[in-house]
Design goal:
By secondary structure, the chain is mainly beta. It is built from two helices and 20 strands. It is about 10% helix and about 40% strand.
Length: about 240
């Protein structure tokens, strides 16, 4: 009987292994430069399904499913941050934002955007407006005008926006250094360690699923807020919100 169990276990592992194909790309089987694993960062996928990544010291590479192409950017120290629905790839270099449409580069300096410090994240609203999370708040760009989004008590608190997601209608979720910011189209609500069971005010990233679930990464852990069944849990299976 033990032999039968062992054979079944080996068969199960073989099925699982055969179901997954992992390909490792490096300088020996592609035109990627020689680099250490920790040097590859800023991974994103564009509207065509192509993968973009930045390799420190070498610049940006695009992978179309067959080969890697080195992108001749304005300089090798700009980083791909976001790909919008129109196929544009947005880069940043500190407070400077650059748009690349596949042929042309458009550079937006801080004198145009009003962004004073580091850009952390970018996201596109259902309306097509671009939202930019920075070390000094939330900014928007509608294709013509840049504007700083008014956050609650911004004269008191410094908001580092590290994650941006959009719910139904006008809902905006922003992970910040002051907690989880939620906007219902009219007003903001802040959830943090002081008024909810989120154990930390420093939210590092958030992701909103098609089922209405919100996933929250914060310093020290990970939480999950479920809208689909009305039950909210954190990593310890405790009720997350009051």
């Amino acid at each position: 009987m033990k032999t039968v169990y062992t054979l079944l276990l080996l068969l199960f592992c073989a099925v699982i292994t055969n179901a997954q194909k992992i390909t490792v790309f490096n300088s020996s089987n592609s035109n990627l430069p020689k680099y250490d694993a920790y040097d590859a960062s800023n991974l994103l996928v564009d509207a065509k399904g192509d993968v973009w990544m930045h390799i420190r010291g070498y610049g940006t590479y695009e992978y179309d499913g067959h080969e890697f192409t080195h992108i001749d950017t304005l300089d090798k120290y700009i980083y791909p941050r976001f790909a919008d629905k129109e196929g544009n790839v947005w880069f940043e270099n500190g407070s400077t934002i650059i748009k690349f449409d596949g042929k042309n580069w458009v550079k937006y300096a801080k004198e145009q955007t009003g962004i004073k410090n580091r850009v952390f994240t970018m996201s596109e609203a259902p309306s097509g407006k671009l939202y930019i999370g920075t070390s000094d708040g939330l900014y928007t760009f509608d294709g013509s005008h840049w504007e700083q989004f008014n956050l609650p008590n911004s004269d008191i608190y410094k908001y580092e926006i590290r994650g941006i997601e959009f719910g139904s209608a006008d809902e905006i979720f922003a992970g910040s250094s002051q907690g989880l910011l939620m906007f219902n189209g009219k007003e903001w609500k802040i959830l943090n360690e002081h008024n909810s069971k989120i154990p930390s005010s420093l939210i590092l990233n958030i992701k909103y699923s098609p089922t209405g679930d919100l996933y929250i990464c914060y310093t020290g852990g990970f939480s999950f807020v479920s809208k689909s069944n009305g039950i909210n849990y954190d990593k310890n299976n405790l009720q997350l919100l009051n």
